[in-house]
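[job 4471] stage=fold_predict status=RUNNING
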Amino acid sequence: MSKEMKIIPELRFPEFEKEGQWVIERLDRVVSNFIVPMRDKPKKLDGPIPWCRIEDFDGMYLSSSKSNQGVSLETIEEMNLKVYPVNSLLVSCSADLGRCAITAKELVTNQTFIGLVPNTRKANTIYLYFIMSNSRNELNARSSGTTISYLSRQEFEKFEIPIPPDEDCLEQQKIASCLSSLDELIAAHKDKLDALKDHKKGLLQNLFPQEGETVPKVRFPEFEGDGEWEIKRVEDFFDVGSSKRVLQKDWTNDGVPFYRTRELVSLSKNEPFGSEIFISEDLYIELKESYGVPVEGDFLVSGVGTLGVIYQVKKEDKFYFKDGNVIWFSKREELDSSFFEFCFESSHIQNQIDAQTSKSTVGTYTIKNARITEFWHPPRIEEQQKIASCLSAVDELITAQQDKIEQLQQHKKGLMQGLFPKIKS
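[job 4471] inference complete, writing structure tokens
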């Protein structure tokens, strides 16, 4: 017997406003079957039914294995494997606990998942997908294990979820349809973002000379008679070094931000982040007066961890950075800084970094290697500026598209909070 909830969702479709209170149901009362798969991977993975893992989860529906591995019917019968039917809800009970997907075809997997086969008279599969996705914090709170979280079938069976009161699942279907439509819109915008990134990648290939060439495949008409590009080294235009060492005892909880590789990566991706380490204003002034600090048009490049990530210093920036982890390119000769930043993103430079770091046991991009890194240089700065302007315009479109996706995801998060009542423990 279900127990009545004393609350209703904050958001409710008008046609259901008079339907009354929602109820709380245990999963085992809305699911007709809990499928617990085998514990071990079958020895033969060569058949027609996909063998799926957590890495294959990408969106609401799951139909194939990215590794193209499958299990033959003979192996399934021989080992008595569990096959998930179409329209089952797979929920991760270990790695990435609570991550969900709906099977779009028959699948086989291991004990990392539990399969929920909904009772169609009591639960809509897509509704269950969203309600379980929205319950990941609660699932994790119930988990056991010290190093790896795990949730047993018994815990899943008694897990409680809110259910609308109508017997035909119409309100569930309405909620599922609303959130599915929003997911489709987000997916469409992600496809557009991928297309913009592919467009930029194509421009980077065509606006810079490729191997064996001295001029780009695509050149703006006003520069076609300017002759060949030249190969230059970073040290031809920049003084390459790092910062003055700051001891850990000089770190503070506030003051001037002190950046490491992780903060540099966030800066380069224009991602919001909170500074974790600072130095005092007095120490910053001392370092600035004695050794200098990065200024507008300079670059910081990651030398450990995620290698070759570049950040162009802005006029308003005020920070210091960790020596050894981050390389400082201080501009000395005339060069369009935005053009150079795009040079650094090109495969020409990134391939050099990969080749240089592969020669060491611990992958690092060193100051020595940075100095001799080569890049293509057109004869006139006006061509540099034109290329930078073109690629910057694409970057602005990419940023705007990323912002749009983030807004839609926040809208979805708000909808899910409003459409599902909170269960008070």
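[job 4471] summary: Confidence is low (pLDDT under 50) at residues 1-5.
[job 4471] exit 0
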